[in-house]
C-alpha cells in the first residue's frame, strides 16, 4: 500500500505529539541567536499509523535534554530510526508494556541507530528488526536500562546480529536488560572503553553476552542461559581498536548454554562450539571469578587463541594469543557431558565428560624467556573447586595424532597456580552536562525554507530543471547508484565568492554555497518526449562553516517541492531505455539519515563534488568544456593546477577511462567509502573502500567479517581473491534484502552494473596458493 507522509510544517507534526511551548514557537522564527530561547521538553507518543514519521521528525527537531516517552502498546515501524542529538532519552512504560516492532522492516541496517552522547534508552522492547536492534556508534555516556531486544520467531541465521550494540563508545552502562534470539550476540559491546554490564539476562542467542576489542569492562550479576555460548570475551583482527584488555567477569550465572549455533557461516561466532559456557579468545588481562558455571555440555571455560578459528589473519598489528588471564574462585559443575561441534567431537575422543577448563596451550614464542612466559604474562587458574583442567595443545590436536596415539595433552594445572593481582573495578565517569540547548543543525532545520522554490535555483517552477543565471550544472565521472534514478546536479556560489581547489576530499566551498541534486524517473525511457517525474531535490548548504542537508519532495503537479525532514516514500513505475517496465518503492531519506551517510568524524560532508570526480567534460550550452576549467574561467574556482597535474576518477562503466582495478575502486569509493572509511559511520568494520586505499587487507582481502550477521551470506571473508562467489563484499552488493544489502539506505534495487564490475574485479585477482 502506498503511503507517503508529506510535511507542510515541522511544527504541525510536533503538535500531534505534544503542545509546543511558547519558547519553542519563538525559536522557530530565527536561526542565529535562538539557542537561549529553546528549552528541553517531554513528548508523548501513542501508537498510530504514522508513528514512523512522527517519531523521526521529533528526533530531528530534538534538542539536548528532550525526553520522548512511548505509551504502553505496540508501535509498528518499517524503517530504521536515526538519532543524532546529544542528551536524549527514549522512555517506555516498561520492557513488558511498550514494544517497538520492526517486523517486515523494509529499509535500514538497524532498528535504531544513534550517535549522540548522553543517550538513555529505558523501559521498552525492540522486536524483529532486519538487522541489529539498537546500535550506538561513537558516543560517550550510553545507558540501556530495562530494555528487551528479541527476535520472536525461531532462532534463525536470518535474525539480526546484535540486540544491544554499543560500538566505539565510552562510559557504557547496560543494566537489567534482556536479549533474546540474536544470530550473533544478544548483548555486544565492541571497541569501547569503560563498560558495565550488570543484572541482564541473555537467552536463545548464539552468544549471550560478548565483550569484543574493549578496554575496561565489568560484567556481573548476569544470567546467560540457553545460548550456544554464554559469555564471550574476544579480540579480533582488522578493527580500529585493538588489544582489548582489563575485563572482569564475576557473579554471573552461566548455565545450560547448549543451544544450537545458528549463526551464519563465515562469522567468527559461528565457530563457537554449542555448549560453551565462558570463552576467552585472544584477549589479555581478563579476570573471571565468583561465577556459577553449570551444565554447559561442551566446555565450561575455553581459553584460546584466534588460531582455533581456522581463519587467516591479514593484520600485522593483531596479537592473536591471550595472556595474563586469571580464572579463580568459580563454581563449576555438570559440564562437558555431551560435547558438540567439530571441536567438541575431537575432544570427546579423549573421553567424557570433557574437562571443565580447556586451554589451547598456544603461547607467543617471542615472549618466552628461558623457555617460559614471564610471570606478568602467565595465566592463573586457581581455587575453582573440583574443576578439571586440560591443556589440549591445539597445535598437536588433529585426527591423525588422535588415531595414532601420539597426541599427549596436559592435565596438570599446577603450572598456572600462581595467583594474579586483581584487576581494578570500572568506574563510569559522570555524564557530561548539556553544554548547549540547541545546536546549529536543529536551528538550521527549523529555519529551513519550507518550499524548494524559495531557494530560487530554477527557471519557472523548476519542473524543467533549467537553472537560473549563477547556478551551474555539473556531473560526475562515477555516480552513486540510487535505484536507477536520473540525477541533475547544480552548484550556486555566492556573488564574489570562489571555490578552493583541493586534490583530496571535497572541494573547499565558500560560505553560503548551495549544492542541489534532483532525482527523477522517465515516464518512458524509449520516448523522451513523454517527460519524466521529479521525485525529490536534496539541498546541501554551508552556513557558519558547517554543512546542512535537506530533502524536498516534489508534488504530483510538478510545480514545487516541500521540505520533508522526516523522510518518506513514493511508489513509482516507469519504462527504462531498454523498454523494461520497472517499479520501485522509492525512499526519501530523513534528515538524520542524510547526516549518517554524509558524516565524517560526526561532521556533515558532501559526498560527490571532489576534484577527481568533477574532472570531466560537460556541455554548458555552447559546447563541451572541462568542468573545472569552466568554473575557473568564471572565477568560481581558484588554485586550479594545470590539467596534467590533476587526478581524474575513472568512469566506472567505461573501460576506456581506467583499468578494471581503477574502475572498481572508483565505484566502491563513490558508493561505499562515505561510510567505509576511517572517519565514516561504518569505520567500526575496519573496511576502508576509499579510491586511493592500496592496502589489500584494508579494502577487504582475506578480511574476516565483523558484525555482519546473516549479511555474511555464509562467506568467511570480505574478499577472497579470484572467488567472487565466496566474497561477502559482492554478496551484499548483489542483495536487495534489508539487513543485508549495502549500502543499507538509499537503495532498494540491485546495482547490476556495479555488481558485475565488482564481480569481474574479484575474479581477476590472482588466487592465493
TrEMBL record:
SUPFAM superfamilies: Multiheme cytochromes (SSF48695), Pectin lyase-like (SSF51126). InterPro entries: Beta_helix, Multihaem_cyt_sf, PbH1, Pectin_lyas_fold, Pectin_lyase_fold/virulence, SO_2930-like_C, SO_2930-like_dom. Residues 108-233 form the Right handed beta helix domain. It comes from the Bacteria. Gene3D superfamilies: Single-stranded right-handed beta-helix, Pectin lyase-like. This is Planctomycete cytochrome C.
Amino acid at each position: 500500500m502506498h503511503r507517503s507522509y508529506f510535511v507542510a510544517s515541522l511544527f504541525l507534526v510536533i503538535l500531534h505529539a505534544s503542545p509546543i511551548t511558547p519558547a519553542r514557537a519563538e525559536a522557530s522564527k530565527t536561526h542565529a541567536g535562538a539557542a537561549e530561547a529553546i528549552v528541553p521538553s517531554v513528548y508523548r507518543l501513542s501508537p498510530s499509523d504514522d508513528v514512523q514519521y512522527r517519531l523521526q521528525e521529533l528526533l530531528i527537531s530534538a534538542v539536548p535534554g528532550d525526553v520522548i516517552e512511548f505509551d504502553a502498546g505496540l508501535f509498528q515501524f518499517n524503517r530504521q530510526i536515526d538519532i543524532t542529538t546529544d542528551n536524549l532519552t527514549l522512555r517506555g512504560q516498561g520492557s513488558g508494556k511498550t514494544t517497538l516492532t520492526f517486523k517486515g522492516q523494509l529499509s535500514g541496517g538497524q532498528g535504531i541507530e544513534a550517535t549522540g552522547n548522553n543517550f538513555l534508552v529505558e523501559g521498552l522492547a525492540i522486536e524483529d528488526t532486519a538487522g541489529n536492534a539498537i546500535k550506538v556508534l561513537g558516543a560517550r555516556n550510553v545507558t540501556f536500562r530495562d530494555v528487551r531486544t528479541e527476535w520472536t520467531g525461531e532462532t534463525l541465521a536470518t535474525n539480526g546480529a546484535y540486540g544491544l550494540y554499543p560500538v566505539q563508545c565510552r562510559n557504557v552502562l547496560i543494566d537489567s536488560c534482556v536479549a533474546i534470539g540474536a544470530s550473533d550476540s544478544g548483548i555486544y559491546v565492541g571497541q569501547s572503553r569503560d563498560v558495565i554490564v550488570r543484572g541482564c539476562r541473555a537467552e536463545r542467542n548464539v552468544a549471550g553476552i560478548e565483550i569484543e576489542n574493549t578496554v575496561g569492562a565489568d560484567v556481573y550479576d548476569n544470567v546467560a542461559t540457553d545460548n550456544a555460548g554464554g559469555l564471550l570475551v574476544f579480540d579480533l583482527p582488522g578493527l580500529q581498536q585493538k588489544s582489548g584488555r582489563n575485563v572482569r567477569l564475576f557473579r554471573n550465572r552461566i548455565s545450560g548454554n547448549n543451544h544450537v549455533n545458528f549463526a551464519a557461516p563465515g562469522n567468527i561466532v559461528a565457530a563457537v562450539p554449542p555448549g560453551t559456557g565462558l570463552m576467552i579468545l585472544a584477549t589479555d588481562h581478563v579476570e573471571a571469578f565468583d561465577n556459577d558455571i553449570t551444565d554447559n555440555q561442551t566446555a565450561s571455560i575455553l581459553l584460546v587463541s584466534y588460531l582455533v578459528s581456522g581463519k587467516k589473519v591479514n593484520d600485522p598489528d593483531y596479537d592473536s594469543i591471550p595472556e595474563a588471564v586469571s580464572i579463580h574462585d568459580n563454581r563449576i559443575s555438570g559440564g562437558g557431558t555431551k560435547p558438540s561441534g567439530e571441536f567438541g567431537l575431537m575432544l570427546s575422543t579423549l573421553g567424557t565428560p570433557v574437562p571443565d577448563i580447556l586451554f589451547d596451550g598456544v603461547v607467543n614464542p617471542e615472549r618466552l624467556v628461558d623457555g617460559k612466559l614471564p610471570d606478568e604474562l602467565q595465566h592463573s587458574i586457581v581455587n575453582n573447586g573440583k574443576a578439571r583442567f586440560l591443556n589440549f595443545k591445539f597445535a598437536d590436536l588433529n585426527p591423525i595424532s588422535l588415531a595414532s596415539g601420539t597426541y599427549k595433552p596436559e592435565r596438570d594445572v599446577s603450572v598456572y597456580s600462581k595467583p594474579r593481582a586483581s584487576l581494578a573495578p570500572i568506574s563510569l565517569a559522570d555524564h557530561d552536562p548539556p553544554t548547549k540547548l540547541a545546536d546549529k543543525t536543529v536551528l538550521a532545520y527549523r529555519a529551513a525554507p519550507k518550499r524548494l522554490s524559495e531557494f530560487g535555483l530554477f527557471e519557472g517552477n523548476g519542473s524543467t530543471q533549467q537553472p537560473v543565471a549563477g547556478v551551474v550544472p555539473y556531473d560526475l565521472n562515477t555516480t552513486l547508484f540510487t535505484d536507477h534514478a536520473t540525477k541533475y546536479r547544480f552548484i550556486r556560489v555566492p556573488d564574489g565568492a570562489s571555490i578552493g581547489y583541493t586534490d583530496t576530499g571535497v572541494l573547499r566551498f565558500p560560505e553560503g554555497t548551495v549544492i542541489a541534486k534532483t532525482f527523477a524517473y522517465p515516464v518512458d525511457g524509449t520516448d523522451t518526449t513523454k517527460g519524466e517525474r521529479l521525485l525529490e531535490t536534496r539541498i546541501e548548504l554551508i552556513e557558519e562553516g558547517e554543512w546542512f542537508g535537506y530533502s524536498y519532495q516534489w508534488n504530483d503537479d510538478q510545480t514545487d517541492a516541500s521540505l520533508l525532514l522526516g523522510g518518506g516514500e513514493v511508489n513509482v513505475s516507469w519504462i527504462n531505455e531498454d523498454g523494461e517496465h520497472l517499479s520501485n518503492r522509492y525512499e526519501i531519506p530523513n534528515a538524520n539519515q542524510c547526516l549518517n551517510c554524509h558524516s565524517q568524524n560526526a561532521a556533515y560532508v558532501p559526498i560527490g563534488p571532489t576534484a577527481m570526480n568533477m574532472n570531466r567534460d560537460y556541455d554548458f550550452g555552447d559546447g563541451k568544456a572541462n568542468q573545472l576549467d569552466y568554473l575557473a574561467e568564471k572565477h568560481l574556482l581558484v588554485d586550479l593546477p594545470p590539467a596534467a597535474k590533476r587526478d581524474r576518477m575513472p568512469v566506472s562503466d567505461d573501460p576506456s577511462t581506467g583499468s578494471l582495478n581503477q574502475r572498481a575502486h572508483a565505484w566502491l569509493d563513490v558508493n561505499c567509502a562515505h561510510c567505509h572509511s576511517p572517519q565514516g559511520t561504518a569505520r567500526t568494520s575496519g573496511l576502508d573502500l576509499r579510491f586511493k586505499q592500496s592496502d589489500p587487507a584494508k579494502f577487504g582481502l582475506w578480511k574476516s567479517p565483523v558484525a555482519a550477521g546473516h549479511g555474511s551470506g555464509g562467506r568467511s571473508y570480505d574478499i577472497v581473491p579470484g572467488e567472487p562467489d565466496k566474497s561477502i563484499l559482492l554478496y551484499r552488493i548483489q542483495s536487495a534484502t534489508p539487513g543485508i544489502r549495502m549500502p543499507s539506505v538509499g537503495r532498494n534495487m540491485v546495482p547490476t552494473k556495479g555488481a558485475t564490475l565488482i564481480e569481474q574485479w574479484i575474479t581477476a585477482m590472482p588466487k592465493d596458493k
